[in-house]
Amino acid sequence: MPSTNPVRPNHVRRPTYPLAHAARQKPRRVPLVLRFANGAVHSIIVVPVSLHSLFTLLIVYLDRHVTGSVGLPSTIIPSLSIVVGLMLVFRNSTSYDRFWTGRNCLTTIGTSVRNLARTFLVSARSKNGENLGEVERRDTEKIVRVLVAILYAIKHNLRAEFNIPPASLANEIPHPPSYSRSRPQSRRASFEGLGEEGGIHTAKAEYISLLPDGLMGYEDQGLGLPLQLAVLVEGYIRRGFERGWFHGPQASQMTVQVNSLTDAYGRMETIRSTPIPVAHLIHQKQVLALFTCVLPFAIVDDYGWWAIPIVAIVAFTLYGIEGIGEQLEDPFGYDKNDIKMDGIIEDTRQELMVLLEEWKATANGTALGGMFE
C-alpha cells in the first residue's frame, strides 16, 4: 500500500536565511573517522609522530641486532601516563573553556546589537505622528549601520587586522576618501597607496557601506575601533533622549546594553591577549616527549618490531589531543575549528539590514503592512 506521508524521505532541508551563513552548508560526504584534512590536526602532529616512530625503529634495531636488550621495566609506564593524562586534560579543558567563553561573548555582543537596533528603529518616531525630518532619518540609519560595523570591528581587532585609516595619516592622502555607498571602490583605491608599511591594511569592502562618512581611526594611538564606534552609539542615545524618543529608564537600559557589549568584547580581548603560561607549555611538551621516548624501551622486549606501530598510535593519540588544545587556545582566527565569526556576523548583518530597509520604507510612507507601521 503506498505511503500517504507527504514528506519526501530523501528531502534535505535547505537552510533558511536566519543562520544561513553560520550553519553548515552541506552534509558530510566523508565519515569523520576517515577525514585527514578540513578540521583535522594531522598536519600539526605529523612531525612528532614521525620522529617518535623513527626513534622507536632505532631502539628496536639496537635491541635486536646491536647491543642486545635495551628494555626497561614496563612498570615505569603507569606512573608517567598519569602525569601525561592530567596535563593533557588540563590543557584541553582550559582551551575549550576559552573557546566556549569566546563564543558566548560573541553571542552577548550580537544580542546587544540586535536589542539596540530594534529599540532605535522602533523609538525613532515623531510624537505628533509626522514623518521624521531628514536629519533624524539619516542619524538613525547611520547609527544602525554603526552597530553592524561594531561587529566587524571586533572581528578584525581580534584578528589584528586594522583596516581603517588613522587620523594621523589624513594629511598624507591627496584626496580624502569618500565613504559614500554609491562608489564602494573609491575608498579602497584611496588607501591602497599606503600599503602596510604603517601597519594599515587595505580597507575592507564590508566597512564601506557601514562607517560614517569621513570617519578616521585612532588605532595608531591605541584606541580600538569598537570603542570608538561605541562612543557614537552612546551619543545617539543621548540625542534620542533629548529628542524625546527615549524616556530616562529606557535610555539607561540601552546604556546597559552598550556596557554589556563593551564588557563582552573586553573578555574576548582577554582570551586573545592572554596565552597559556609558557611554563605549563614547556613542561607539557617535555613530559609528552619524555613519555613517548620512554615507551619504546618499555615495550621493545615484549613486542619487538610491533613496538613501532604501537608507539606511532600512542604518539598520534597524545599529540593529537595536545594539537586540539593548541587550536582551541585562540578561537578567533581562520582555522576550521575556530569560531565561525564571519558567518555569525553576516547573519546578524542580514537581519539588521532587513529591519533597516523596512524602517526606511515605513518612514518614507511606502511600506505596505510593514512591521513598523
Automatic annotation (TrEMBL):
| Membrane topology of the entry | Multi-pass membrane protein
MF annotations from Gene Ontology: chloride channel activity
Localization, UniProt: Membrane
Entry keyword annotation includes Iron:
no
Record bears the keyword Transmembrane helix: yes
Could you list this entry's UniProt keywords, alphabetically sorted.
Ion transport, Membrane, Transmembrane, Transmembrane helix, Transport
Q: What is its main location?
A: membrane
**By its UniProt entry, which InterPro entries does this protein fall under?**
YneE/VCCN1/2-like
A Gene Ontology cellular component where this protein is annotated is:
membrane
Mark the transmembrane ranges. Answer: 36-62, 68-90
Q: Which PANTHER family match?
A: PTHR33281:SF16, UPF0187 PROTEIN YNEE
The protein here is known as Bestrophin, RFP-TM, chloride channel-domain-containing protein
Source organism per entry reads Massariosphaeria phaeospora
Classification lineage: Eukaryota, Fungi, Dikarya, Ascomycota, Pezizomycotina
